[in-house]
Amino acid sequence: MFSLITTHLPLTLRSPRVLIAIGATTAAAIGVTTYALTRRKPSAEELERERRELLARTGRITDGTIMDTMIAEVRKPALDLADDPEPVRQGPMTPEMIVYVYRIAGVTYECAQDVTMLPELVHGVRTDLPIQVRYAPQNPANSIVVAETWSGLRLGARAPVPYPSDEDELRDPI
C-alpha cells in the first residue's frame, strides 16, 4: 500500500494518517456545504410567528396606547359606472394593522403590528382603552401587542357578571 503513495509529495503528506484526515475533512466540508445549500428556509410568516412567540415568552411588559387601526374596506360592486362604490360595514371590523405608541426610559416608540394572521384575537379591539406592550429588553423597538398565546389588547365589551342579590346569598350559604 505504501508503494502507491507517490514519492514527489512532501514527507508530511506521505503518511496514511494525514491522507485519511484530509479525506475526512473534505467529506465533512462537502456535507456541510450540501446541507447549507439544500435546507428548507423558513418563510416570512414562520419567522414572524417565531418572533411573536419569543416576545410573548420572554418580553417585558409596559403600558401603551393604540394610535390607529387600519381596516381593509370591503367595497360592494358598482352597478352603474357613474356610481362610486361605498364601503360596506357590518358591525365591528377586524383590523389588519395596529399602530401603537409606548414609552421606555424616556424614549417614545411608535410601532405597528401586522395582525392579519391573528383575526380571531383582534376582532372587536377597543382603541379608547390603554394596552399592554411586550418588548425585547435588548431592543425596545422590537415589540408586539398580540400573539397566539398572549394579548395586551382590550377587546369589545363583554357581558357583565351579575352580582348576587341578597336573596341568592340567603339561599346559598357558604
From TrEMBL:
Origin superkingdom: Bacteria
Keywords: Membrane, Transmembrane, Transmembrane helix
Natural source organism: Tunturiibacter psychrotolerans
The protein, known as: DUF3592 domain-containing protein
Transmembrane segments: 18-37
